[in-house]
Design a protein that fits this description.
four-stranded antiparallel sheet; 183 residues; 1 helix; 2% helix
């Protein structure tokens, strides 16, 4: 996805070269059998079959994001991800969402819907908050949150119970004044 809000896929194993005019805001490695998930700052997401994305040799030859997704404003896009390849049945995997205000939510990867023209709630975002990060975990990881004002916390992922997609999550870190989570 380009900074101008153009989306495309490139059929290449090599890393594309970019000029100053075409710097991407999101580059992901995937194959045409996978699903691309795009999540907005508001926690709403879209799922797209990668094979349906327009193919383009150059980034500035892509198609406007709003023509192939329900997203109308590319500036409101928080992140994009592709589910890692592997057998979800033999090894449980989870999706962790983290907001700027420190809310943490763990959901099973299997709860994610397949490609659709409809938006879905990836995470409920409280008023004044924004989706910051999406991570994949095994369920046995340690989570480490860092704030703008250099506060940090580390805790076991097992301390966060599994929740459905429409939940907001639990408070992962207490913030002071205008502080917010940066990673």
């Amino acid at each position: 996805i380009s900074s101008d809000g153009l989306i495309s896929r490139k059929n290449s194993i090599s890393v594309p070269k970019y000029s100053n005019k075409s710097i991407p805001t999101l580059v992901l490695k995937a194959d045409t059998h996978q699903t691309l998930y795009l999540a907005g700052l508001d926690g709403m997401a879209s799922a797209l079959a990668i094979h349906t994305l327009p193919e383009a040799e150059k980034l500035d030859e892509g198609t406007a994001l709003e023509k192939v997704t329900p997203f109308k404003d590319p500036g409101k896009l928080a992140c994009g991800f592709v589910i890692p390849k592997g057998d979800l049945q033999s090894k449980p995997q989870f999706l962790i969402t983290i907001t700027k205000q420190g809310m943490v939510k763990k959901s099973p990867l299997g709860d994610l819907p397949g490609p659709s023209s409809q938006m879905f709630a990836l995470v409920k975002i409280n008023p004044g908050d924004e989706l910051q990060q999406v991570l994949f975990t095994s369920g046995e990881e340690d989570l480490f949150l860092v704030t703008k004002n250099s506060s940090a916390i580390r805790f076991a992922e097992s301390e966060v119970r599994t929740m459905g997609l429409v939940a907001a999550g639990v408070n992962g870190i207490k913030l002071q004044d205008e502080d917010h989570v940066v990673m």
